[in-house]
Amino acid sequence: MRRLAMVSTYPPRRCGLATFTDDPRRALATSAPQWIVEICAVDRDGLPYGPEVAEVIRQDRAEDYRRAGRALAASAVDLVVIQHEYGIFGGTDGTYVLGLAEELDRYRVLARPGRGRVRWPPPRRR
């Protein structure tokens, strides 16, 4: 099994990106059952989420982005997709999402240091 995490708004939040994020999650569940798809929902209203939501990031809390990044990295997720739309991430111009990316980047393994190529699949951490 492979694990995919999608970072985005998500239903019940009412916005186009939330709906867009739910569509590939549902499609992959039937077309690629070897992938477990988890959601990391960016929330601004304290909404209730379903069991597919592994992490909830409070939109305007910088520490939530770092916590979610650490949790995703620790869970040995294989792929993280960060869905972007202006205004969904907190901070000036959405900069809080960089904290999440920095936490994930700590776990990237380069196949050939200096050449910027990532080994795929990444080795499993013990």
- Give the count of helical stretches: 3
Look at the helices and sheets and give the structural class. alpha/beta
Shape: globular
One letter per element, helices H and strands E, the order comes to: EHEEHEHEE
* C-alpha-based Rg, rounded: 15 Å
Mean pLDDT: 88
> What is the subunit arrangement here?
single chain
CATH fold type: Rossmann fold
**Separation, N- and C-terminal Cα atoms:** 17 Å
Q: Describe it for me?
A:
The structure is a single chain. α2 (62-74) packs parallel to α3. The chain is of the alpha/beta class. α1 links the parallel β1 (2-8) and β2 (35-43). The model has no long low-confidence stretch (mean pLDDT 88). The strands form two sheets. A four-stranded parallel beta sheet has the order 3-2-1-4, sandwiched between helices. Strands 5-6 form a two-stranded antiparallel ribbon. It has helices at 16-31, 62-74, 97-105, and strands at 2-8, 35-43, 53-58, 79-82, 110-112, 117-118. The radius of gyration is 15 Å and the shape is globular.
